[in-house]
Amino acid sequence: MVRSCFALATALPLVLASGGVAQADWPERPINAIAGWSAGGSSDITTRAVVREMEGELGQRITVTNITGALGSIGAEAALAAGPDGYTWFGGAAVAGTWPVLGHSDNSWDDFYSFLSVVFPTTIYVRDDAPWETIEDLVAATEEAEPGTFRYGHPGAGSNGEIFAGLIMEEAGLSGRVEPIPYEGGREAGRFLVAGEVDFASVTMGDLTDWAVEGSIRPLVNLHDEEIEFEGVTFPSVVDYYPDLEPYSAINPYFGIYVHRETPEDIVIRIAEAFAHAVQQESFISVAVDERAGVLDPAIGQASDEIMSRVESARSWPLFESDVAPNDPAEFGIPRVTEWSWPPHERAEQANPWPAEVEDIFKSLQDELG
Predict the structure, then answer these.
(1) pLDDT (tens digit, 9 = 90+) per residue, 303-313?
(2) Which helix (H) or strand (E) is 32 found in, with range?
(3) Model-level pTM?
(4) Full set of structural domains in the chain with CATH
């Protein structure tokens, strides 16, 4: 009996508040990160860039597998199904809050710990030989044409690209006159734009910046509060044309990696330490910021949850009101972004909290980045 009591007393410190068991030697084998979108797009590239820098800190190889479809939810479900042992992550855009509204999945952002790295504006691109010099020119041509004449590509149903183009057309009084064509990622939408299969593409800015720099496509408008210059290319601000759309910059995608919310605390802390190291490395910044025109704005802890929740609000309501999403956001307790406050609903209140150590890591990261 004494031996049993001693064993129990010894084991108790190893049991974590989250219900998991401490994994002092984690990771003992390679980790798999599932990117939920096609190869070559911003989700894929930012995932690969950040995990590459995390490998050295964790002492294990991190492979990236692409499992596409349903706005990333298919890959995310695979990551959750693998269990909360820290060996399978999800990577890509921070759109999990829209999956229930779209009917893609019952899972949402509160099923993950989200490690967010960079944010990208959303951009409408046309081919370089297109006759429209501004977004106003494109809108005017759309108004003069028969409904359905104009087609645009976007990264998938419920994507930031689909929402942004829909908001532009709604603001111009042209809802329903342009045919949206979904693709498996912004890069694929760009390929069909270059091939002439669609008239414009509404995608994450970083998906196609290299083609804009080389001159095969041109940006007409950018969902950002000011004009952006990137390697000699001007990305006009939506505020200059449709200032009422500026609040919807919350639909601009964050990118990151996402870990099962029931993962043991000590593993979450190890991941947070490696992530904080990774986003400060020049090689990551070179890929995600210098090459892809992303804005470095890392977030972990409650700050990350708040971002994920605002994205949920900002995207879900436009999707529902434009008949893209079949399910009413109110059924999931999702407030409009203009009415958002933390915590926004019961799901957020009941989600496993972040380890306190992660909040400390985030504060140190903010201090180091200035």
Answers:
(1) 999 999 999 99
(2) strand 31-35
(3) 0.79
(4) 16-120+253-369 (3.40.190.150), 122-250 (3.40.190.10)
